[in-house]
Amino acid sequence: MGRPTKENSLTRQDVIEAAIACIEKEGASALGVNRVARELGIKPPAIYKHLQGNTELKKAVALAIYKLLFIELKSKTADLKKPRNFLKAGGMISRDFARSHPGLFQVMMQFKLQPEDPESASVIQEFQSLVQVFLNSQGLSNNKLIDIMRMINSAIFGFITLEQSGLLTLPRSTDDSFEVMLDALLEAIEYIKVN
Length: 195
Hints:
The chain is mostly helical. The chain is 70% helix and 0% strand. α1 crosses α2, α3 crosses α5 and α4 packs across α8.
């Protein structure tokens, strides 16, 4: 990426983009102030003007990754009207994102979204909005919406995490199992909606 010129001094977004570039090249373990500083061709203290250490860097990067995934989900599902098509596409898009960006997916999965944190809350809210649009049901109780969100996250992201870890070792195709899981997930969502 190189050192920013005086006319184009370092910004918080530059640091986040450099961190993402490091992760894409070297994996999740490359996420750190020292490694990002090397990527930018600067000394680590310059980063502290924008992010207060590794914890804040990890948070900023994880939130940026969630936003990248949401942008992809929204752009590729905008024309889908049926819940079945939306969920299947969303699952496949998430899995493709994880396969194309394994380090980014790992960083995203290692970050704990905190509802009381305004930045995390906005990511949670965005996911809630996606789920509500997908269900075409704004009238669901908050508890049912939370149950559905947790189930979707556990099923899709759990499957992807197990797959990336090499733990799905039985001879059946993981593609076939993923498709079956998405179909079963739709049935489970319907169950939650009516009970």
